[in-house]
């Protein structure tokens, strides 16, 4: 038998009708200006209840969405620590955000636009590079004299903490220029001066345009001194009685190279504190610390921190912040499920 010839009442139940254009393609034997809306006679009670109450239908879908969102975690953690400034990577132990990195290096770096600066009490030194394998940072003082430019003199000063955790490396040499004959490094402390790689400080006067001006004041080269960081650490330029200074790095590789081709700046060396940071980063977090107590923390997101790592380790050791977040998530999930069941059954 043709299914279209069966009585309509045996297949569907008419609920309501709406007016439509007269050219309806429906095959049913109803007037063209009426289109019936049907539902199966065997609809489950819950589905029929939802269809009869559109508001309940929308609320039910909303509750289902909340359940799904509370059950599945985000695809990847978002840590509160920036990891780059311009083209320079910012990794542990350094940071440009308070509470990130190691507390010993707090507020040492500042990111201005795309430029990274090493902050000291004597000024801002532009960071040229950071080598995380060799644990060195090369900085440059824009106000320091070099072979090509003569600048007003000033001291290089870092705090006692900085001089311990990130001092200039041994292959950074300071040149004290245009010194008085009464300078302590030419008398009592002359043992602080040295030559390196076959170079003497007199070469700076003849090989650098910026320093050649000092030759016009005397018939001979004015006294100068190659020395290490400890000299300028304990004696200011006024005590040293020298008008200018400059510094350069990688001195062991400068044999046979003139001062015009030296690399001017300072190389700082640092050590990475052993605080278990590797465990934190492997779990997707960023190493940081409590800004009030200085205690190491694993920063997992902008709203959740753990004491050691962001995810459970092989031994099940989870930080207190992680445990609190898991308990909160479970309680929220249970609350949503309970509300959904109550809504479906009793409303």
UniProtKB/TrEMBL annotation:
Extract one GO molecular function annotation from the record.
protein serine/threonine kinase activity
Domain Wall-associated receptor kinase galacturonan-binding: start-end pairs: 81-141
Q: Return the annotated region ranges for Disordered.
A: 1-20
Which GO cellular component terms are attached?
Answer: membrane
* This enzyme's EC code(s): 2.7.11.1
Keyword flag Cell inner membrane: no
Please give, as recorded in its UniProt entry, the membrane topology of this protein: Single-pass membrane protein
Entry's Pfam families? Answer: GUB_WAK_bind, WAK_assoc
Primary subcellular site in the record, as a coarse category: membrane
Which spans are transmembrane here?
330-346
PANTHER family hit by this protein: WALL-ASSOCIATED RECEPTOR KINASE CARBOXY-TERMINAL PROTEIN, WALL-ASSOCIATED RECEPTOR KINASE CARBOXY-TERMINAL PROTEIN-RELATED
Name this polypeptide is given: non-specific serine/threonine protein kinase
Lineage at the top is: Eukaryota, Viridiplantae, Streptophyta, Embryophyta, Tracheophyta
């Amino acid at each position: 038998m043709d299914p279209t010839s069966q009585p309509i009442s045996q297949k569907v139940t008419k609920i309501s009708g709406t007016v439509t254009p007269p050219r309806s393609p429906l095959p049913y034997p109803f007037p063209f200006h009426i289109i019936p809306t049907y539902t199966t006679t065997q609809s489950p009670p819950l589905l029929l209840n939802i269809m009869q109450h559109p508001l309940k239908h929308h609320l039910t879908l909303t509750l289902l969405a909340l359940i799904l969102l509370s059950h599945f975690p985000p695809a990847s953690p978002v840590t509160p620590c920036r990891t780059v400034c311009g083209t320079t990577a910012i990794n542990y132990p350094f940071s440009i955000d308070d509470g990130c990195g190691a507390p010993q290096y707090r507020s040492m770096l500042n990111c201005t636009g795309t430029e990274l600066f090493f902050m000291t009490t004597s000024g801002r030194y532009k960071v040229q590079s950071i080598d995380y394998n060799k644990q060195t940072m090369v900085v440059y003082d824009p106000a320091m004299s070099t072979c090509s430019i003569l600048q007003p003199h000033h001291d290089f000063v870092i705090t006692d903490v900085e001089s311990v955790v990130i001092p200039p490396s041994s292959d950074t040499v300071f040149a004290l220029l245009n010194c008085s004959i009464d300078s302590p490094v030419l008398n009592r402390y002359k043992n602080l001066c040295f030559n390196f790689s076959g170079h003497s400080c007199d070469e700076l006067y003849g090989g650098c345009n910026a320093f050649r001006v000092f030759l016009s004041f005397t018939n001979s080269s004015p006294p100068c001194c190659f020395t290490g960081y400890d000299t300028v650490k304990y004696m200011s330029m006024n005590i040293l009685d020298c008008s200018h200074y400059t510094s350069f790095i990688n001195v062991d590789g400068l044999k046979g190279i003139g001062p015009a081709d030296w690399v001017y700046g300072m190389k700082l060396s640092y050590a990475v504190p052993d605080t278990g940071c590797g465990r934190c980063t492997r779990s997707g977090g960023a190493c940081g610390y409590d800004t009030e107590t200085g205690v190491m923390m694993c920063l997992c997101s902008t709203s959740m921190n753990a004491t050691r790592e962001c995810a459970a380790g092989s031994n099940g050791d989870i930080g207190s912040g992680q445990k609190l977040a898991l308990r909160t998530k479970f309680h929220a999930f249970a609350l949503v499920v309970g509300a959904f069941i109550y809504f479906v059954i009793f409303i």
